[in-house]
Amino acid sequence: MAKKSTMIRTKTISVSYQEFDSTEELEENDRALVNEASKAALNAYAPYSMFRVGAALRLENGIIVKGVNVENAAFPSGICAERSAIAAFITGHRGEKPLAIAIAALTDEGLSGEPVTPCGNCRQAIAEEESRSGKPLRIILAGAKKTIVIDGINNLLPLQFSKNNLRPPIP
Predict the structure, then answer these.
(1) Which letter does DSSP use for residue 132 in this model?
(2) Does 82 qualify as catalytic in the annotation?
(3) Three-class SS of residue 45?
(4) What does pTM read for this prediction?
(5) Residue 79: how many CA atoms within 13 Å on its side-chain side?
(6) CA distance 29 to 7
(7) Which CATH number fits domain 18-157: 3.40.1050.10, 3.40.140.10, 3.30.450.20, 3.40.640.10?
């Protein structure tokens, strides 16, 4: 019996983002969103990690919806700020579309030095929201040393799981 020939293809994934030395360099709407995320982080419930994260989601109609991380002694029963904001948005503003999300983490010294990126669960939740709304979401990751702006989850979560992976296809 002849052995089947295997063709291996190597592919490359590249991502693109903007990096700013300070949130002050951001356009006004993005800077305001980072400020709202930072303010929201003050309300986070983080008694175990002491790492408070806030997220602010700007909708097309200008409304800003916020979320925070909520820790739980029965780890991993908590929720991240990004998913908290998305849940609040869907609960109160389902007919709207999100434009951007800013994420800021606070330590006892203030804004974290490096920007905090969304965890895998949050990346997947952002991907689902982009799919639902039909447009890329601007993702702003704020840190004291630098701020990163990413246009669309594909630049943060390539090869994502989506409704296209499910059978039968969901409209």
Answers:
(1) H
(2) yes
(3) strand
(4) 0.90
(5) 12
(6) 49
(7) 3.40.140.10
Residue-by-residue pLDDT tens, the chain, 171 positions: 666 778 899 999 999 999 999 999 999 999 999 999 999 999 999 999 999 999 999 999 999 999 999 999 998 899 999 999 999 999 999 889 999 999 999 988 889 999 999 999 999 999 999 999 999 999 999 999 999 999 999 999 998 888 888 877 666
Interacting residues of 95 by C-beta distance below 8 A, sequence separation 6+: none
Q: Distance between CA 116 and CA 136 in Å, rounded?
A: 20
Q: Which of 82, 109, 114, 129 is catalytic?
A: 82
3-class SS at 129?
helix
If phi over 0 gives left and psi between -120 and 50 gives alpha, with beta otherwise, what is residue 152? left
Strands (E) located in the chain: 18-20, 52-59, 64-68, 98-107, 110-111, 138-142, 147-151
